[in-house]
Specification:
Length: 303
């Protein structure tokens, strides 16, 4: 994020997993952290560890989100960084899904992102400065069987992020969508001994978020993918168009405009080439995101 170092961060949908790693990473970077969750009882240890403050808020309720930001302004100040990490899953066979549960899933996974981003943007636009990051998932790119509500919400959240990046970026607000493509290891989800790279390290993911937050404005990323080793390409459909990629171990490889290659190590962001710049970070492939670019040399290897 350009225009000065951020001073405070709000993490919405806080808990013991990725959001806890985000809170620790931001606190180590001298950022004041605020946590928001429907209930805050489980956040006491994290607040003591990071010096964060915790606020109760249901992100899918407009009045509660509005009150949250009003309370922040009155106490710790409006946040420079906002990370939307909330989601809700409703699983099951499509014809048996409970409409109320589906409505809740979309409300938390997508509508809440809209509410939080709107309140954040209203304040950030005054300073023409800030960063809004949305946590996506594999379901942001592809829908899985018996998981339609989650895919609906995550697809919508990705669309929101793309629209805001184009609208708010020129006004000084960095908006990015973070695709977390795979399971995240935790105390309840240990790494299998025979598959040490099958789960993502939450601290490594948090480091990728921080890298995006610290990007200079001339090279902002609008989306990165963090994935465990050995997975499939997220979006194998290749649209028409003479777009070219070049990546490690595959120099000069042709790829579709919307191909997003796998990452060679957990939580290392892919590069997305856009009309206004190129993001930073090690990556196995380059995504061309400008129809005016027909060919690109080796960005990674200087060719």
């Amino acid at each position: 994020m350009s225009g000065g170092e951020p001073e405070s961060a709000l993490i919405v949908g806080a808990g013991a997993g990725l959001s806890a790693s985000l809170a620790r990473a931001l606190a180590r970077d001298d950022v004041r952290v605020v946590l928001a969750a429907r209930t805050t009882g489980d956040l006491e240890a994290l607040t003591l560890e990071t010096g964060a403050r915790a606020f109760a808020c249901d992100a899918a309720v407009p009045a509660q989100v509005e009150r949250l930001f009003a309370e922040l302004e009155a106490t710790v100040g409006a946040p420079d960084i906002v990370i939307y990490n909330a989601s809700f899953r409703a699983r099951g066979a499509f014809i048996e899904l409970d409409p109320a549960a589906v409505e809740r899933s979309i409300a938390v996974s997508a509508f809440g992102g809209f509410l939080v981003a709107q309140q954040a943007a209203r304040r950030m636009l005054r300073q023409r400065h800030g960063a809004i990051l949305f946590t996506g998932a594999s379901a942001s790119m592809k829908g899985f069987a018996q998981s339609a509500p989650f895919a609906m919400g995550k697809f919508a959240l990705r669309g929101l992020a793309q629209s805001l990046a184009r609208e708010l970026g020129p006004q000084g607000i960095h908006v990015a969508h973070m695709v977390i493509d795979g399971g995240i290891r935790s105390a309840r989800r240990a790494v299998p001994p025979d598959a040490p790279d099958s789960l993502l390290d939450p601290d490594a993911i948090a480091a990728a978020y921080l890298q995006v937050i610290r990007q200079p404005r001339s090279a902002w990323s609008s989306e990165i993918e963090a994935a465990a080793l050995g997975g499939e390409i997220l979006n194998p459909a290749r649209p028409a168009g003479p777009f070219y990629c070049r990546g490690r171990g595959n120099p000069g490889a042709r790829c579709g405009r919307n191909i997003m290659g796998r990452i060679g190590a957990a939580a290392r962001p892919c590069l997305r080439v856009r009309p206004y710049g190129i993001s930073t970070g090690a990556c196995n492939s380059v995504l061309i995101d400008d129809p005016g670019i027909e060919r690109i040399g080796s960005i990674l290897h200087g060719g």
